[in-house]
TrEMBL record:
Keywords associated with the record: Decarboxylase, Lyase, Pyridoxal phosphate
GO molecular function: glutamate decarboxylase activity; pyridoxal phosphate binding
Source organism phylogeny: Eukaryota, Metazoa, Ecdysozoa, Arthropoda, Hexapoda
Statement: the UniProt record of this protein carries the keyword Nucleotide-binding: no
Organism from which the protein derives: Coptotermes formosanus
Top-level division of the source organism's lineage: Eukaryota
GO biological process: gamma-aminobutyric acid biosynthetic process
Claim: Lyase is one of the keywords in the record: yes
Cellular component, GO annotation: cytoplasm
Protein's recorded name: Glutamate decarboxylase
Residue list for modification N6-(pyridoxal phosphate)lysine: 327
Length: 515
C-alpha cells in the first residue's frame, strides 16, 4: 500500500524558463508572453490534480497519510512570505497540499455523509471556478441563473410541490435556517419590521431528539432560545414518536406558548432514521403549524421508486424541504437546496431592496435576480456542477445510484450478521448508515449487555486511531443518548463495491482483534 508518492514535487517540473518566473509573468500582468506561460502553469497543475484523482481511485493507495498537527506544521512550509515565490514553488505547494489531503473519494472512505468524487460534478466545479461569478443577479450570471430555475423546478416536482420557490444555500444548516425564517415570516409578517416585540407570547418549535444540531441552532440564533426548541422523543429506531409530538404541543399550549414550527427529519445524521411524515403532517394540520422536512441526508431517496416509500411518503404535504445534493447524490461540496410550497415567501421575508444591486428599471425581467431572496449578499455558484452531473446521469442514473447504495448497504448488513462473534449490528438501517460495534477476541465470549457495550465503546476510538495511523480505512464513530461510542459506516460513494465492504470488515478485524 502506497501513500501519496506520486505527488512528490520532483515529478512536476515546469520547463527551465518557466520554473523561476513569478505571478507577474502570468496573465493578466504579462500581456506579451502571458498566454503560453499561463497555459504551461495550469496544465502542470492539472497533471497534479489528475494524479490525485488517480490515487483516489487506486485501492493500492492509502486513504490518508496521517500526521499530528504539530508534526504537519513542521513538515510543511505554510508561511506567508513578503516576496513572491516562483511558479515552480506554487506547483510544489499544490503537490504537497494534495499529498497530505484525505482522499474522500477513495473506495475505503466511509467516514462522512459526503463521500466520493463524482468526476462530472468536479468538471463542473472547475468550470464554475473559472467563470468566477456571483449568483445575485441575472446581469452577471445569466446562464447559471436559468439553470437554477430549471433544476430547482425539477427538484420541487420530484418532492411533489406544484409551483413554489427554492434557493441554494451554503449548507443544510443554512437551508434549515431559511425554512425557519420563512415559517416565522408567514405567521408573523410584522416581525421583519417590528422585531420580537410584535409577537405576544413565546414561540416554540419541535424536532426529534435525533435531529441535526442545526435545527436547535435556529432557536438559538433567532431569539427563541434553545429551551424553546422542544426535543420530541424517538422510538428505538430513532424515529420521532408522533403521539409524543402532540402531547408536547398541548403541554406548551397549556402554558400559553405559541407552537409554530415542526421539523421532521428524513434520514437522521447518525442512525439514518426517517420520521413518519404522514402522521406528523396530520398533527401540523390540526394545530396549524409549519411542517419542515429536513431531508438534507435522506432526500436523495426521492429519486428511487424502490426506496422512496414509505420513507418519504407525505413529504409533499410539508411547507418546506431541505435537500443536500452534496450528500447522497454525490454532487461536489457544497450543494444544498431548500424548497418552499408557497411562492413569494423567500422574497417578502428577506428582501431589503438594496438600491445598488436590485434596481427595478433594468434591461431585463428583474424577477430573475435572486439575490434579494436571501440573507446573504453574494452567493456561490453551486448549480453548475449539479446541472452538469444531472445531464450526465439523467434522472435514471441518479435512481440507479440510489438503488446501488442501498443494495451495498444490505450486503454489508448481511455480512455483519454472518459474523455475530466479531460484529454487533445495532439496528436494521433504513438508509446507508450502518451502526455497529466491532468485537475484539477477548470480548467474544462475553454475553452482550450494558457492561460489554461500555467496553466496546472504549475500544471504538482506539480502533479508529489505528485505522487512521494505518491509513487504509476511515469510518466514523460517535456515542448517542443511549449508547457509548459505536461505528457509523456510510456508503455514499459510487466508488464502493462489495469487495470494499469485505475489505472493511477484514481490516477492522486485522487492526482490532487484540484490543
Ligand atoms: C448534514 C445534515 C445537515 C447539515 O448540512 P450541512 O450541509 O452540513 O450544513 C442538516 N440536517 C441533516 C439531517 C444532515 O444530515
Amino acid at each position: 500500500m502506497t501513500s501519496g508518492g506520486g505527488l512528490e514535487p520532483a515529478n512536476y517540473r515546469l520547463s527551465k524558463n518557466t520554473a523561476l518566473l513569478t505571478y507577474t509573468d502570468l496573465l493578466p500582468y504579462n500581456t506579451q508572453q502571458g498566454v503560453p506561460i499561463t497555459r504551461e502553469f495550469l496544465l502542470k497543475l492539472i497533471e497534479v490534480l489528475l494524479e490525485f484523482v488517480r490515487q483516489t481511485n487506486d485501492r493500492n493507495c492509502k486513504v490518508l497519510d496521517f500526521h499530528h498537527p504539530a508534526d504537519m506544521r513542521r513538515m510543511l512550509d505554510l508561511d506567508i512570505p513578503d516576496r513572491p515565490v516562483t511558479l515552480q514553488q506554487l506547483i510544489d505547494d499544490c503537490c504537497l497540499t494534495l499529498k497530505y489531503q484525505v482522499r474522500t473519494g477513495h473506495p475505503r472512505f466511509f467516514n462522512q455523509l459526503s463521500c466520493g468524487l463524482d468526476l462530472v460534478s468536479m468538471a463542473g466545479e472547475w468550470l464554475t471556478a473559472t467563470a468566477n461569478t456571483n449568483m445575485f443577479t441575472y446581469e452577471i450570471a445569466p446562464v447559471f441563473i436559468l439553470m437554477e430555475h430549471v433544476v430547482m423546478e425539477k427538484m420541487r416536482e420530484i418532492i411533489g410541490f406544484q409551483g413554489g420557490d427554492s434557493i441554494l444555500a451554503p449548507g443544510g444548516s443554512i437551508s434549515n435556517l431559511y425554512a425557519f425564517l420563512a415559517a416565522r415570516h408567514r405567521m408573523f409578517p410584522a416581525y421583519k419590521q417590528k422585531g420580537l416585540s410584535c409577537i405576544q407570547g413565546q414561540l416554540v418549535m419541535y424536532t426529534s431528539d435525533q435531529c441535526h444540531y442545526s435545527v436547535k441552532s435556529c432557536a438559538a440564533v433567532c431569539g427563541l432560545g434553545v429551551d424553546n426548541c422542544v426535543e420530541v422523543p424517538s422510538d428505538s429506531r430513532g424515529r420521532m414518536i408522533p403521539s409524543e409530538l402532540e402531547r408536547l404541543i398541548l403541554e406548551r399550549k397549556a402554558m400559553g406558548h405559541i407552537p409554530f414550527f415542526v421539523n421532521a427529519t428524513a434520514g437522521t445524521t447518525v442512525l439514518g432514521a426517517f420520521d413518519p411524515i404522514e402522521p406528523i403532517a396530520d398533527i401540523c394540520q390540526k394545530y396549524k403549524l409549519w411542517l419542515h422536512v429536513d431531508a438534507a441526508w435522506g432526500g436523495g431517496l426521492l429519486l428511487s421508486r424502490k426506496y422512496r416509500h414509505p420513507r418519504l411518503s407525505g413529504i409533499e404535504r410539508s411547507d418546506s424541504v431541505t435537500w443536500n445534493p452534496h450528500k447522497l447524490m454525490g454532487a461536489l461540496l457544497q450543494c444544498s437546496t431548500v424548497h418552499f410550497k408557497e411562492d413569494g415567501l423567500l422574497l417578502s421575508c428577506n428582501q431589503m431592496s438594496a438600491e445598488y444591486l436590485f434596481m427595478q428599471d433594468k434591461l431585463y425581467d428583474v424577477r430573475y435576480d435572486t439575490g434579494d431572496k436571501v440573507i446573504q449578499c453574494g452567493r456561490h455558484n453551486d448549480i453548475f456542477k449539479l446541472w452538469l452531473q444531472w445531464r450526465a446521469k439523467g434522472t435514471d442514473g441518479f435512481e440507479k445510484h440510489m438503488d446501488r447504495l442501498m443494495e451495498l448497504t444490505e450486503y454489508m448488513v448481511k455480512r455483519i450478521k454472518s459474523m455475530p462473534d466479531k460484529f454487533h449490528l445495532i439496528l436494521e438501517p433504513e438508509l446507508v448508515n450502518v451502526s455497529f460495534w466491532y468485537v475484539p477476541t477477548r470480548l467474544r465470549s462475553v454475553p452482550h449487555g450494558p457492561e460489554r457495550e461500555q467496553l466496546l465503546g472504549q475500544i471504538t476510538p482506539v480502533l479508529k486511531g489505528r485505522m487512521m495511523t494505518a491509513g487504509t480505512l476511515m469510518i466514523g464513530y460517535q456515542p448517542d443518548d443511549v449508547r457509548p461510542n459505536f461505528f457509523r459506516n456510510i456508503i455514499s460513494s459510487a466508488a464502493v463495491v462489495e469487495a470494499d465492504i469485505d475489505f472493511l470488515l477484514a481490516e477492522l478485524d486485522r487492526l482490532g482483534h487484540d484490543l
